[in-house]
């Protein structure tokens, strides 16, 4: 899925290959009734910050070159520069907290469909192959937000090629999507998702392993009050 693929890019530059502790991938979309909105993507390694700090002092670990803080910042800056040139995208920002090891990219969109193509191109610049297995849409007339997702058939095969210590990184990793709206939610088609008490947000949380193994589908159709 495209936004999660951008998260994969963030994971790549924040040392996931050399860790053996938990991390969080968080995707947030704030939708307005007119179809505009904002996206925030966060990689949170704060629960592993002591280990990450130790790794950052080394040149390499388990055959992986450890990037410097300057290199990590450079990679984020390049992603920001590309996003700023993307159609329908504005207000692009990034932040890095090297005390708690949290990285964030945020931006605004004119239409939710604007985010359907950008991450594949960003990843291609980093020589990371991406697949088009997810898309977002919003029908202003019916006030219906949709996310279509199809599991990547090769994900499990590629995961099984990893070394055992690298596989362990994903055992406690989680992926969370949070969609917020101006109008109340009347229905959410995904049975794993949860609607907030305010009825204006929908959250879905999954383990990264369930996504890799195709045990969970994050597709959803969310109907808003008309």
Give the helices and strands, then pairings.
Blueprint: H1 2-13, E1 24-31, E2 37-44, H2 49-55, E3 60-61, E4 64-65, H3 69-84, E5 89-97, E6 102-109, H4 118-125, E7 134-139, E8 144-149, H5 155-160, H6 164-167, E9 174-181, E10 185-188, E11 194-195, E12 201-207, H7 208-212, E13 220-224
Parallel strand pairs: 1-9
Antiparallel strand pairs: 1-2, 2-6, 3-4, 5-6, 7-8, 8-13, 9-12, 10-13, 11-12
Compact overview of the structure:
The chain has 226 residues and is α+β, with helices and mostly antiparallel strands. It contains 7 helices and 13 strands. This is Lipoprotein.
Key words describing this protein structure:
226 residues, alpha+beta, four-stranded antiparallel β-sheet, 13 strands, 33% strand
Structural overview:
This protein is α+β, with helices and mostly antiparallel strands and 226 residues long. The chain has one domain (2-16, 23-224). The chain has helices at 2-13, 49-55, 69-84, 118-125, 155-160, 164-167, 208-212, and strands at 24-31, 37-44, 60-61, 64-65, 89-97, 102-109, 134-139, 144-149, 174-181, 185-188, 194-195, 201-207, 220-224. The strands form three sheets. Strands 5-6-2-1-9-12-11 form a seven-stranded mixed β-sheet. It has a four-stranded antiparallel β-sheet with strand order 7-8-13-10, with no helix packed on it. Helix 1 runs parallel beside helix 4. The longest helix is centred in the middle third of the chain and has 16 residues, at 69-84. Mean pLDDT is 80; it is low at 1-18 and 126-130.
Molecular shape: globular
Can you tell me the number of structural domains?
Answer: 1
Sketch the topology as an H/E string, one letter per element: HEEHEEHEEHEEHHEEEEHE
Distance separating the two termini: 29 Å
Going across the biggest sheet, name each strand in turn: 5-6-2-1-9-12-11
Q: What is the share of helical residues?
A: 25-40%
Structural class: alpha+beta
Strand content: 25-35%
Individual helix count = 7
Mean pLDDT value: 80
> Main beta sheet: strand number and arrangement?
7 strands, mixed
Provide the gyration radius in Å: 18 Å
List how many beta strands DSSP finds.
Answer: 13
Q: Note poorly predicted spans.
A: 1-18, 126-130
